[in-house]
Amino acid sequence: MNEMGHLERQRSRFWRSGRAITGLAILGFLVFAAAFAPWLAPHDPYEQNLQARRQPPSDQHPLGLDELGRDNLSRLLYGARLSLLVGVTSVAIAVTFGGLLGALAGYLGGWLDSAIMSLTDVMQAFPTLLLAIAVIVVLGPGLTNAMIAVAIAAIPTYARLTRMGVLRAKALDYVVAARAIGAPRSRLLWRHILPATLVPILAQATLGVGTAILEVTGLGFLGLAAQPPTPEWGAMISQGRGAVFAAPHIILFPGIAIMLMVLAFNLLGDGLQELLDAHSA
What was the pLDDT predicted at 2? Predict the structure, then answer.
């Protein structure tokens, strides 16, 4: 009963967070646009009209045309799908592998803890984007490889966060009591320890989605992520950078879309962080 009441208080506190609600509203709008892109897009995102290239916004093309005469609005809608897929998938991979490494390091300790933490120290010695570029050099350019590269670069963050949570949870009274009555290690880890680490990991993962989207966008700008003619926002900015003064709408609208998506995840992550801080107080 106490646990149910605690969860209810946390849920109520979350829904009273203005940042979280704003983030959810923006994210909901973007998810709706991505999910219904085939019905909302006024044109084929790959259809070219070279005679009308760089055309400014008009009634027929509300966000104008790009360098190759493709409809910007249609490409942005389809690009929202890729950005959400990239962000969520890369963070899911990082949380899975980083969480597993961190849980093993924190729970088992000893030489395994030292080895895993030393590995994360080496990985974190490199800037995240530089490490991702190094992985792409090995795997080759492409959207899938960019997701893997960003995920690998983020693994140390979740490994360390999970390890700290596990170490903190191991000292909780109910965990100590469960260990004292002979509960199996696997039960201790999966039923008692890891659930206590979920809120901080979820908060970091939510913020991490926005970071992952920015990093993949940066890789796309460098030509290392999605390849033409894929409608990916970073690639759209890269392809339109030569017309920044002649046709600024080509890069302006993808830039706004990236800002809104990252802002949505950051606000949502801030709301979860407020919940975590209130829980810790």
Answer: 39
